[in-house]
Amino acid sequence: MSRHLEATIETFPIAGVFTISRGSKSQAEVVTCTISEDRFVGRGECVPYRRYGEGIEAVLAEVQAMAGFVAGGLTRAELQDRMKPGAARNAVDCALWDLEAKRTGRRAAEMIGAAGTQPFVTAFTLSLGDAEAMAAEARRQAERPLLKIKLGTEDDEARMRAVRAAAPISRIIVDANEGWTENNLVRHMEIAAELRISLIEQPLPAGADAALARIPRLVPVCADESVHATEDLHHLRDRYDAVNIKLDKTGGLTEALAMKAEAKRLGFSVMIGCMVGTSLAMAPAVLLAQDADYADLDGPLLLARDRPDGLRYDGSLVYPPAAALWG
Active-site residues (predicted)? Predict the structure, then answer.
């Protein structure tokens, strides 16, 4: 067995500008990891996130530093100890999963016990803007069954009301990206309940979210920035009803599978989410999301250009990946 690892930075333009409470971007910068063994090639993609202290060059270097270990036959189990959770480990872990699928002729869905995968509904994300702009976009997407709207300002009431009026039938997830405060939390939650919002994601900053345990949660609340790996779950049971599992946080599909199982055991609802990346980043998450309560895997729909053999989307339905893409 002779294995070789390569890693590169790639850039994919976003269709327009994607804005959340922390800022805007017009392109997705990703690190792609390729592991080859004889004629077989496995790939994984990660999206470094500055909110977690990850820079694109540093993550690239972390992935490249695994080349010698991969050449020596590094397993996925060994990888969990060799690298910390985060984007870099995600790229290597998913490349190893893909390589094993290609080498053995087994689909990754079968390997993780998700054989018979089916298409499912993913949320479609509306980026943060003023109420009028968000309502206009909501009207364009009003036939989608599940919308996710980016909020996180001192006064999001007008935005929530405008989007609900523009999309009266859609289920709506509100993602505040840590942008609310203890002063406006109760008011915003009351409005969300009135407007039949299905889920509120990360309203308060990670590490400063204890107020969620002291108030009536009129709408279920989902942890995102507050939860990264399995060990985080036990500390969140008094303040969150759901958790958003992202491969770039957990450090790959291996940890994400364990985290999902434990989250379900503890009684959390589960969302499988993503950063803004290509179909290669979404593919393993699509398998992970087969029995999830919510899926937010619309990354490729936000791009102006995706990879070849990308995921198939039919409206809000996302289909399992073809073998030519991943797994």
Answer: 150, 246
Residue 150 is a catalytic residue: yes
> Is-catalytic flag, 25?
no
Which of 200, 201, 202 is closest to 190 using CA atoms?
200
Cα separation, 26 vs 295, in Å, equals 23
Q: Which of 202, 186, 206, 205 is nearest to 150 (CA)?
A: 202
Q: State yes or no: 262 annotated in a binding site.
A: no
Pairing relationship of beta strands 124-126 and 221-223 according to DSSP bridges: unpaired
What residue segments make up the domains of the chain, in order of their start?
3-105, 120-318
**Superfamily the domain 3-105 falls into:** Enolase-like, N-terminal domain (3.30.390.10)
For residue 306, say whether it is annotated as part of any ligand binding site.
Answer: no
- Could you count the other beta carbons within 10 Å of the beta carbon of residue 110? 15
Q: Tell me, which fold does domain 120-318 have in CATH? A: TIM Barrel (3.20.20)
Whether the model pTM is above 0.85: yes
Q: Walk along the chain (327 residues) and give the pLDDT tens digit of each residue.
A: 689 999 999 999 999 888 887 788 899 999 999 999 999 999 999 999 988 899 999 999 999 999 999 999 999 999 999 999 999 999 999 999 999 999 999 999 999 998 788 999 999 999 999 999 999 999 999 999 999 999 999 889 999 999 999 999 999 999 999 999 999 999 999 999 999 999 999 999 999 999 999 999 999 999 999 999 999 999 999 999 999 999 999 999 999 999 999 999 999 999 999 999 999 999 999 999 999 999 999 999 999 999 999 999 999 999 999 999 999
